[in-house]
């Protein structure tokens, strides 16, 4: 059955302090969990701030809150929302922007993660709602530019529907997990998501430039780094997604071509455009800075890492570690099939690789896993399998 409109219609968008206070009162007067969602403008804006926050609670109805005219500050809602369980889909995507607005959950249920642990084949909000509730959600605006104002009515309709049946979906997924004996595991996972701090800064984020595999020489890599950093600075100043300031393909092409002057740079595709010609000296300045670097300051051909080498090299560098890894992968694959849980949810792949490359000297696999962030349920399931795998020897 298609779910085309919210049952109570599209609520008026909350845009001022008095309306926000009324929304807080309504939420506090409601009962049960609070469905929460947030819309960002990824792909359009540099920041990951929330441009719309959707809320729904039994007895309170739905609310659409625009943080922009409120200065991004939604702390007036915090007392009413502190205590009840929040229900989000793919919570790790929305929690940072909600925290930036002053909202943090005391308890959490993640419907996307619940679907994964339940072994469901498709865990997007639409497929889950269709499978578990028999309702088809409207599609089409998830990747829209939510920084646009005014927000079109069909976008607001879409946003309101995202929380319309989220609590109902939570209830049926909780029942399914309970039947499977996995509900306690799920709550361990939800708590890990809720309490996870911000991720550490990436080492050499410029190395994620699409197409960088085409760049081999250190001097050309320095050009990629310099252009990437120049673009990032400009994107942050303008609050525009970096790819809209200068596409990755243009960075790679300029680094490989190594133009001798600004005029030659302006002859390359993308740089011929009007917007880039205005920044001609800026981009060429970044290239010139890379060319002026002494050899000692050039980037290495591969990113530094504190982890094991690429798995493809294990067979040559340490056959015993390669045998341990093969046995661990086989054991976890069997465990995954038995419990209908994706392997990556049973245990972080990086943690498994670190264990197989450098097993603990004292042989305490459970302690190694816990130190690496594994939850209790993961340790209980995987430690016996991994202990057996560590005894594997090359054939």
Walk me through this protein's architecture.
- By secondary structure, the protein is of the alpha/beta class.
- 50% of the residues lie in helices and 9% in strands.
- The protein has 20 helices and 8 strands.
- The protein has helices at residues 17-29, 78-81, 91-100, 111-117, 125-133, 153-164, 166-180, 183-195, 218-238, 242-245, 248-257, 262-265, 274-278, 280-291, 314-317, 319-339, 343-346, 349-357, 365-371, 376-389, and strands at residues 2-3, 13-14, 31-39, 52-58, 61-65, 85-88, 107-110, 136-137.
- The strands form 2 sheets. The chain has a 6-stranded mixed sheet, with helices on both faces. Strands 1-8 form a two-stranded parallel sheet.
- Helix 3 (91-100) links the parallel strand 6 and strand 7.
- Helix 4 runs parallel beside helix 7 (166-180) and helix 9 (218-238) packs antiparallel against helix 11 (248-257).
- The longest helix has 21 residues, at 218-238.
- It is flat and about 65 Å long.
- It starts with a strand and ends in a 6-residue tail after the last helix.
- The model has no long low-confidence stretch (mean pLDDT 96).
């Amino acid at each position: 059955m298609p779910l085309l409109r919210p049952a109570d219609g599209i609520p008026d968008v909350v845009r001022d302090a008095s309306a926000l206070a009324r929304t807080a009162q309504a939420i506090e007067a409601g009962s049960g969990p609070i469905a929460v969602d947030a819309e960002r403008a990824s792909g359009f804006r540099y920041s990951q701030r929330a441009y719309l926050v959707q809320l729904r609670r039994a007895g309170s109805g739905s609310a659409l809150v625009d943080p922009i005219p409120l200065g991004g500050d939604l702390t007036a809602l915090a007392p009413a929302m502190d205590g009840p369980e929040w229900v989000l889909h793919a919570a790790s995507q929305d929690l940072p922007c909600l925290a930036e607005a002053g909202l943090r959950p005391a308890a959490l249920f993640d419907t996307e993660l619940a679907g994964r642990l339940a072994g469901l084949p498709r865990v997007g909000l639409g497929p889950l709602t269709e499978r578990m509730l028999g309702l088809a959600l409207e599609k089409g605006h998830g990747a829209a530019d939510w920084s646009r104002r005014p927000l079109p009515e069909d976008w607001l309709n879409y946003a309101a529907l995202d929380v319309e049946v989220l609590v109902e979906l939570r209830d049926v997924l909780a029942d399914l997990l309970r039947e499977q004996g996995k509900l306690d595991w799920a709550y361990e996972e939800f708590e890990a998501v809720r309490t996870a701090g911000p991720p550490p800064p990436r080492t050499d984020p410029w190395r994620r430039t699409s197409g960088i595999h085409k760049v081999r020489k250190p001097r050309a890599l320095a050009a990629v780094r310099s252009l990437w950093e120049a673009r990032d600075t400009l994107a942050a100043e303008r609050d525009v997604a970096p790819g809209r300031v200068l596409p990755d393909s243009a960075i790679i092409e300029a680094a490989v071509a190594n133009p001798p002057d600004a005029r030659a740079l302006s002859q390359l595709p993308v740089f011929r455009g009007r917007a880039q010609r205005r920044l001609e000296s800026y981009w060429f300045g970044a290239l010139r800075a890379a060319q002026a670097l002494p050899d000692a300051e050039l980037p290495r051909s591969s990113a530094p890492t504190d982890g094991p080498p690429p798995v493809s090299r294990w067979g040559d560098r340490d056959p015993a570690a390669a045998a341990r890894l093969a046995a661990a992968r086989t054991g976890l694959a069997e465990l995954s099939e038995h419990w209908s849980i994706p392997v990556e949810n049973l245990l972080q792949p990086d943690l498994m690789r670190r264990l197989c490359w450098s097993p603990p000297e004292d042989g305490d696999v459970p302690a190694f896993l816990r130190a690496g962030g594994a939850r209790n349920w993961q340790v209980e399931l995987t430690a016996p399998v991994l202990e057996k795998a560590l005894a594997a020897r090359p054939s």
